[in-house]
What does this fold into?
Amino acid sequence: MAETGCHGGRETMLEAASAAGKSAGMAQLMQDYPRGPHDQPQSMCPAFGALRVGLRMKRTATILSGSACCVYGLTFTSHFYGARRSVGYVPFNSETLVTGKLFEDIRDAVRETAKPEDYDAVVVINLCVPTASGVPLDLLPKQIDGVRVIGIDVPGFGVPTHAEAKDVLSGAMLRYARGEAEAGPVARPAGLRDELPMVALIGELFPADPVGIGALLAPLGLALAPGLPSREWRDLYGALDCAVAAAVHPFYTATVREFRAAGRPVVGSGPVGVEGTAAWLGAIAKAANLPASVLDAARAKLLPGIAATLAAAPIKARITLSGYEGSELLVARLLVEAGAEVPYVGTACPKTEWSAADLDWLSAHGTHVQYRASFEQDLAAMRDVQPDLAVGTTPLVQQAKEAGIPALYYTNMVSARPLFGAAGAGAMAGIVAAQTRGRERFTRMVSFFDGVGTRDAAGYGWQDKPRDPPGFRDRLARQRAAKLKAEAAVGT
Ligand code: SF4
It folds into this structure.
C-alpha cells in the first residue's frame, strides 16, 4: 500500500478511502479543493502546508500518521524551513493498519502528548495511506485535560496543493474555536488592546505586510485582528471577533466557511498598487458599513504615496509569472500597475470568488490567467512568450535559465518581500530591475556552454560530450516493450 500514495493513482486511493468509511470527508475535500488537470501534486507533498501551520503555532504539538518515507520527507522539509520543534510520528505496519491497532497507537500518542502544562492543542494529520485505509481520527477524544485534539485527513489524492492543506488545518482549528466561543467566554488574545472594529487577514503574509495593511486600515478607523493561520490558539478567538475577514490569499475555503458561519462578511483581493488598493479599501469600507466620506478621505490620504512610489521606479519588462502560493494574481496586478507587460499568470490554486476581482482586472489588462496551472502549461507559456523575466517555481526557473531567460524563484524572492501598499510597490521594482539586468549574462552563459552535454549527458570531468554505448537505448526500449507485453499477458 505504501507505494500507492502520490504515485499510485488518485482514483484507486479515493475508492479505498471511500470504501473505508471516509466518503463524506473525501466529498468535502473535493468540493473545497476542486481538481486540476493532473492527477497528483506537482509540487511538494501537500500535507506540508498543514504541518507547517501546526509547527508555527505556539503550544501546539503536531503528529503525523503516514508512511515512513512521507514522514521523512515532511520532517526534512519542515526543518529545512526552520521549524524549531519536533514533529511527532506514529509509525505503522501492514498488521497495525489492517487490524485497527494504528488508531489505538495514535490515541495513545495523543494521550501521552496532551499535557496542559505544555500544550493548548494537539494536531494529528493522516497522510495518504492512513486516510485511504480509513483510520478514523474523528473518533479521537475532542479534548484531554483541556488540550484540544484536532484530527485531519490531508491526503495528496484529495488536497491538490500544500497551499490548500494550510486551509484544511486552519479551517479545522477555527471551527473548533468557533464552537468554544459560541459555548461561553473565551480567553482574550494576548496584546489585543484595540477597541476599534477589526479586519482579520487570511493568508500567510510576509511579516511586514500586516503592519503595512494596518497602516492602510487606520484612516478608515479600523484595526487588525490576529491573522490566519494563527500563531496561538487564543488568536483564533480574536480573528473570529473581527468586523470583516479579508481573504487576501484566495484559497482558504474552509476557513472562510467558518467566518461566514460566525456571521462575518468576507472580502477578496488585496491592497496592491493604486487601483488594487483603492478597490480593496472600498470593499472593506462597504463590508464594515463605513460612510463614503471616510473612504474618500482614506483614499485621498493613502493613494498618492503609492502612485508616487510606482512612478519613481517603473518596470519596463515582459514577465511571466507562475507559482503555488495563492498570491500570484496580486503580484501580477502590482507588476502591471508598475508598467510591466504580463501576458501569462499561472497559479496552482483553484478559481474562487476571492480572486474574481483580480481575474477581471488582469483579463482587462491583457493577461491570461491560468488557474490550477500545471507545470507543462507554465513552461509552454514561458517558451511562447520569451519574457525578459520568468518568475516561477524551481523546475520552471531551471528551464528558463537553460534557455538563457532571466528567472526568479517565486517563493524565495517574491514571497520574501512586502507586496502591499507603497512598500510593496517599491520592493517589486527593485527585484525586477536587478534580475532583468542579467539577461546579457545569461546569453553569454548559454553560448559558453554550447555544445556540452545536457540532461543525462550532463556532468563534468569529460573531455567530450558523453556518448551512450552503441545499441544501449535500443536495448532498453526492447526490454521495456517486452516487460509491458508480459504484464499485459498476465492481465488476460
Ligand atoms: S503523504 Fe504526501 S508524499 Fe506521501 S504519498 Fe501522500 S502526497 Fe505523497
